Amino acid sequence: MNNTEIIELTHRNMVDVYGCLPLAFARGHGAYLYDADGNRYLDFFCGLAVTSLGHGNPRVVRAIKEQAEKLTHVSNVFHTEPTARLVEKLANHFGDGKVFLGNSGAEANEAAIKLARRWGNGRFEILTTLGSFHGRTLATVSATGQERYHQGFQPLMPGFRMVPFDDLAALDRARRDETVGVMIEPIQGEGGVVVPRADYLKRVRDWCDRNKLLLIMDEVQTGMGRTGKFFAFEHVGIKPDIVTLAKALGGGLPIGAMIARAEIASSFTPGSHGSTFGGNPVACAAAVAVIDALEQDGVLENGSSVGAYILERLGKFARSCDRIVEVRGLGMIIGVVLKHDARPIVEECLKNRLLVNGTAGNVLRLLPPLNLTREEADAGLATIENAFKNAPIPK
Ligand SMILES: *Cc1c(COP(=O)(O)O)cnc(C)c1O
Question: Is the Cβ–Cβ distance between 193 and 162 less than 8 Å?
Fold first, then answer.
């Protein structure tokens, strides 16, 4: 099928919740995607921070093929080797952790919310932040601090309250007897790549300790090396009580994980929680291959140095471009804050075969593969800089 045929067939039959761009992709290789008509695109979008090793990474493809041929599913009533290997790796990266596996970021956060309530033993309220994004299930959308995701779904699930991000005093004012913890993204991704001040997360950690509250970090987007370290919280030398991962974990296959300190995880007992597909051996084999690549292929180092280069070059460009307010980010999660809606820039880049994402209205979000080369970075940056010169300014 060509682009037009795929798009028409989809529109006729699929619930329209995504407002898709008019493009259908057929294959990918490294940092490049090819549409169904054979056109090549440079990918600074990575399926929303999912394909962090690029497309068709040999380690990941081999792991998926080999496991698919051996065994694809047995349920959590039984054990499999890929699942055992993955939970060992995740528990070790976290340090003294226990892992629950699901299929998505929302499910990882659901597990964290349910675990916090079990552990709270009567305390149930979780404080979250304005501008946050935690998922689309009813609990995680209730935890999400953006009203546009709530519209039409009320009543929301009780047990969440929102405070401004990067504001410890606001957290302290919001705390009540029934508060059990805080759920926070180290960098708000979907909310516009909002990076808190250097000491915020450390101070939230100390405040949680003083008040016997759980610190739950949603690293669904920032984890798995996106910021240059395995977990973003490693940059500030702290450790949360619970962390969630998904997006890049499976190298393109659906998988999510909740990792909790062992003593907290013990509040879950057989029958407390579960997921039919969670820990699926094919998804786990892919995730093990992704972690191997992060550990052995210099991917984290490359992501941090090429990311720093992109940040620096865009920062310089911004000084001569009156359409840009600020460039911010860490490693390979980069936001360019515009004085206007990001859409014309996204569309201009698309016309020139570069995939980028617009979020929070006026933020251009770049999520390139962590193993992007300097040359690929330069090619993408030239397209972005030209887009600022050529795209119309919206009213
Ligand atoms: C994407 C995202 C989620 C939701 O993940 P899904 O896999 O879409 O359920 C949750 N939290 C953060 C920070 C995210 O970026």
Answer: no
pTM of the entire predicted model: 0.98
Q: Which architecture characterizes domain 59-296 according to CATH? A: 3-Layer(aba) Sandwich (3.40)
Q: Where in the sequence numbering do the catalytic residues fall?
A: 133, 218, 247
- Parse the chain into domains and list their residue ranges: 3-56+298-390, 59-296
Cα–Cα distance for residue pair 175/134, rounded to 1 Å:
20
Confidence grade of residue 19 (pLDDT, cut at 50, 70, 90): confident
Q: Which of 199, 246, 192 is nearest to 218 (CA)?
A: 246
- Is the CB of residue 357 less than 8 Å from the CB of residue 395? no
- SS3 call for 164: coil
Contacts of 167 (CB under 8 A, 6+ apart): none
Binding site membership of 383 for ligand 1 (Cβ less than 6 Å): no
Please report which confidence band the pLDDT of residue 20 belongs to, taking 50, 70 and 90 as the band edges.
Answer: confident
395 C-alpha vs ligand 1 centroid, how far in Å? 31
**pLDDT 10s digits, 187-218:** 999 999 999 999 999 999 999 999 999 999 99
Just give the CATH number of 3-56+298-390: 3.90.1150.10
